[in-house]
């Protein structure tokens, strides 16, 4: 028997959401008695709930158990939100329901029809690349225009203040402008679409893993994301606009592939065949890759990012289509920006950020530098783990105390003002230590402050600029351009500002802040090497700035393969492939020893039932019978409409999948009937909506035959059961489920091990696995939450608590 540290606790609170978007419980009674193999503590008196995702306040309410007896909620403090598994997340159906309607449609498709569908997939991927590139252009141009105007106003004010006194007014102006922009972006996120907060990469990872995250690929989310990231970057926060491009690309892909917009209530009657989770998932993978490609000008890196961080399921043709979307995305961005910069045809802007070319002899590396690169990677891993730990503690604080939208806006405005204040103080405090001569490389807004004529304040070039331009400056400015004190203070201050900023109610990315922090301390490390080395030509500060940037980003997000290729593509120097890979692998190994990556931390804090690549260790002792949910609510092939309506309307057992059993088989013990198929809640709702009853079909009433198009028209927002009117006479009618159920659902015997069920579930993208006995009788069902609640913690197999969050 496996050592299960924590026992499961179920919540029976009804969902407070809109009808039809309620949260499904697992397909098993919350008050079911423990299974023979695994003793579960299913307390009838101690329930808890969390009011919303970012709230851990616990209320004392009353609830009704299955027998109608009232039970009292006991207020219980939950100290760590990641020890919960949320019941509010539904799963996506990545496995096609091969019922009779599906098989008949597939048989009707001719060879030409198959080729037409394939061409449509390529067309959709092309559109995904084009629109993702255009969105990236829009963000880049608007940010550049607004940031230029802001810095121009502030610089003119500072110059006047130096001559006449009153620098405090310049500080107030700078902080006010930052706070104003940040407030606009934060209000949009906090009050209009909260899922648009952050980079969106954790949410897209969850979606591609098979978790239905509410509103994650809506048009409204895209609009808030775009306007929010513009406000955040122009507001001077320690954020980047590259991370949100991945989420934006995914939303564009989800919208285009469906040929309609639920937000705009428009249906263009195209791409109707792709209106199912399986096809939509593949296009979202292409959208995420196109977003990476537009952000970094790295189409191959985009494909690998989608493979490494996003897609759970992969095939060869999908790889080609995703690569095509990525190439179109970076080409569109390149072409449009060349026209904007009045250089048509000059395709020298492949991405939103351009690292520049590392081609001089000074930036080449030698074999004896590889151990130094390993040290750089270890430093990045340690600093990344520290960043993640601090951000984790800060996020837990926000979950407890900053969960109201108004408080979230206030915090974001405060961070914007503090960022401007810190920047101003740092620029002003060390102006006497770091005055650099104005060289050939033009600086757009050089601040002289109290420096002599012909010199500028070097600290200002790091703070008084967009993060992307600051990164490029750290990579390519000549040796001696930065004072070590400047780099040290900038690294320290920007590290804590970026850590405080990530997790705010604003649209933001962590890629560029991580690169900027790493570039600063990496350049400082390069200066140190050049000072201690007799021959300092090999220790180029720009080279070590690049390695430090890679190490810091790898230490925070823990990407290896895709990040290596992204950096190599962005720098245009393939010779850096090996050192960058060494740095990233070292950073990941060291960081993983301390704490998980930032995206994984936030996924756990949101209590998402995310399935990793492999089942938890030490889980072989658990069998499917021990982890399944039971008893199972089943239907017969010929079922009364009244019973179907009652079961679908039961909010205490809001199941999404129902095994169909043989009506001639009598239940025996745990066996509720011989398995004949599986039917989904969404299918039953469509059947009820169209009144597909046996009595109507046999009568003289004219009724058109239901087709797959009727199910696709209702996808993905199927109507709630409460909106379907069923008269008393219709309740006595019968519904034949034979034609609509999946007659070949995946099932395993109760003795199958948990790892075997996990791999089957993970590899095929399943939503339900039916557990059967030796005579093919249904004894239970396994869903995503049954598998996700087990994890290894401190050497023991832990079973997470479940609650409505």
TrEMBL record:
Its main location: membrane. SUPFAM superfamilies: CBS-domain pair (SSF54631), Clc chloride channel (SSF81340). Residues 741-799 form the CBS domain. Signal peptide: none annotated. It holds the Pfam family CBS. The keyword Ion transport applies. InterPro entries: CBS_dom, CBS_dom_sf, CIC-7, Cl-channel/antiporter, Cl-channel_core, ClC. Residues 24-39 have a biased composition (Low complexity). Residues 1-39 are annotated as: Disordered. Keywords: CBS domain, Chloride, Ion transport, Membrane, Repeat, Transmembrane, Transmembrane helix, Transport. It comes from the Eukaryota. GO terms for cellular component: lysosomal membrane. It is a multi-pass membrane protein. It is found in: Membrane. The chain crosses the membrane at residues 122-143, 179-201, 222-240, 283-306, 318-340, 370-388, 409-431, 485-503, 510-532, 544-568. Residues 1-11 have a biased composition (Polar residues). GO terms for molecular function: chloride channel activity; chloride:proton antiporter activity. Belongs to the chloride channel (TC 2.A.49) family. This is Chloride channel protein. It comes from Chiloscyllium punctatum (Brownbanded bambooshark). The lineage of its organism: Eukaryota, Metazoa, Chordata, Craniata, Vertebrata.
């Amino acid at each position: 028997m496996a050592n299960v540290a924590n026992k499961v606790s179920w919540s029976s609170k009804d969902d407070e959401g809109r009808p039809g978007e309620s949260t499904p419980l697992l397909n098993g009674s919350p008050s079911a008695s423990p299974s023979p193999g695994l003793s579960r503590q299913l307390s009838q008196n101690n329930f808890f709930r969390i009011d919303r995702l970012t709230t851990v306040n616990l209320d004392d309410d009353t609830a009704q158990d299955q027998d109608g007896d009232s039970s009292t909620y006991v207020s219980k403090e939950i100290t760590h939100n990641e020890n919960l598994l949320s019941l509010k997340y539904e799963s996506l159906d990545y496995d096609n329901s091969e019922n009779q309607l599906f098989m008949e449609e597939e048989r009707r498709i001719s060879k030409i029809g198959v080729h037409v569908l394939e061409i449509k997939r390529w067309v959709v991927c092309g559109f995904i690349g084009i629109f993702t590139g255009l969105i990236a252009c829009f963000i880049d141009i608007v940010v550049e225009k607004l940031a230029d105007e802001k810095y121009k106003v502030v610089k003119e004010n500072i110059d006047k203040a130096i001559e006449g006194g009153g620098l405090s007014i310049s500080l107030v102006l700078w902080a006010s402008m930052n706070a104003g922009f940040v407030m606009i972006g934060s209000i949009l996120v906090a009050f209009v679409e909260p899922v648009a907060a952050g980079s969106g990469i954790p949410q897209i990872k969850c979606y591609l893993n098979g978790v239905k995250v509410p509103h994650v690929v809506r048009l409204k989310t895209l609009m808030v994301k775009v306007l929010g990231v513009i406000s955040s970057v122009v507001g001077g926060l320690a954020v980047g606009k590259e991370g949100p491009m991945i989420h934006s690309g995914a939303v564009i892909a989800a919208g285009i592939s469906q040929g309609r917009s639920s937000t705009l209530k428009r249906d263009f009657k195209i791409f109707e065949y792709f209106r199912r989770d399986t096809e939509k998932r593949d296009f979202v993978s292409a959208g995420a890759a196109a977003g990476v490609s537009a952000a970094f000008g790295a189409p191959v890196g985009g494909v690998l990012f989608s493979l490494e961080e996003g897609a759970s399921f992969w095939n060869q043709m999908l790889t080609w289509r995703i690569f095509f979307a990525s190439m179109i995305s970076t080409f569109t961005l390149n072409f449009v920006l060349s026209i904007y910069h009045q250089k048509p045809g000059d395709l020298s802007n492949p991405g939103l950020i351009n690292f520049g070319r590392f081609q001089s002899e000074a930036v080449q590396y030698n074999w004896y530098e590889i151990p130094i690169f390993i040290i750089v990677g270890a430093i990045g891993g340690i600093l990344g783990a520290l960043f993640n730990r601090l951000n984790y503690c800060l996020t837990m604080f926000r979950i407890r105390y900053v969960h109201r939208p108004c408080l979230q806006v206030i915090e974001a405005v405060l961070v914007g003002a503090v960022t401007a204040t810190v920047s101003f103080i740092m620029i002003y405090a060390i102006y006497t230590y770091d005055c650099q001569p104005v060289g050939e490389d033009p600086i757009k807004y050089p601040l002289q402050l109290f420096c002599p004529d012909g010199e500028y304040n070097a600290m200002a070039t790091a703070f008084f600029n967009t993060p992307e331009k600051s990164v490029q400056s750290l990579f390519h400015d000549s040796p001696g351009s930065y004072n070590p004190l400047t780099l040290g203070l900038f690294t320290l201050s920007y590290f804590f500002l970026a850590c405080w900023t990530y997790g705010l109610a604003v649209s933001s990315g962590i890629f560029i802040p991580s690169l900027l922090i790493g570039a600063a301390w990496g350049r400082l490390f390069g200066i140190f090497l050049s000072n201690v080395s007799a021959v300092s030509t090999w220790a180029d500060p720009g080279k070590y700035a690049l390695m430090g940037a890679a190490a810091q980003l790898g230490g925070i997000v823990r990407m290896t393969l895709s990040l290596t290729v992204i950096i190599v593509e962005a720098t245009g120097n393939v010779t850096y492939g090996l050192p960058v890979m060494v740095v990233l692998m070292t950073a990941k190994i060291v960081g993983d020893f301390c704490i998980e990556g930032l995206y994984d931390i936030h996924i756990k804090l949101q209590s998402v039932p995310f399935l990793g690549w492999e089942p938890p260790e030490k889980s072989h002792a658990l069998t499917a019978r021990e982890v399944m949910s039971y008893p199972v609510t089943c239907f017969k092939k010929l079922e009364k409409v009244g019973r179907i309506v009652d079961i679908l309307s039961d909010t205490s057992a809001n199941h999404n999948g129902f095994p169909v059993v043989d009506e001639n088989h009598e239940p025996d013990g745990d066996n509720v009937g011989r398995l004949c198929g599986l039917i989904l809640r969404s299918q039953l709702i469509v059947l009820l909506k169209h009144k597909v009853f046996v009595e109507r079909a046999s009568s003289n009433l004219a009724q058109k035959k239901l087709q797959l198009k009727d199910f696709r028209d209702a996808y993905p927002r199927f109507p709630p059961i409460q909106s379907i009117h069923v008269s008393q006479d219709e309740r006595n009618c019968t519904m034949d489920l034979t034609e609509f159920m999946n007659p070949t659902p995946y099932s395993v015997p109760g003795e199958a091990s948990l790892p075997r069920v996990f791999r089957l579930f993970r590899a095929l993208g399943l939503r339900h696995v039916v557990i059967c006995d030796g005579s093919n009788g249904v004894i239970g069902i396994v869903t995503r939450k049954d598998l996700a609640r087990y994890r290894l913690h401190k050497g023991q197999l832990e079973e997470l608590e479940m609650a409505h969050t």
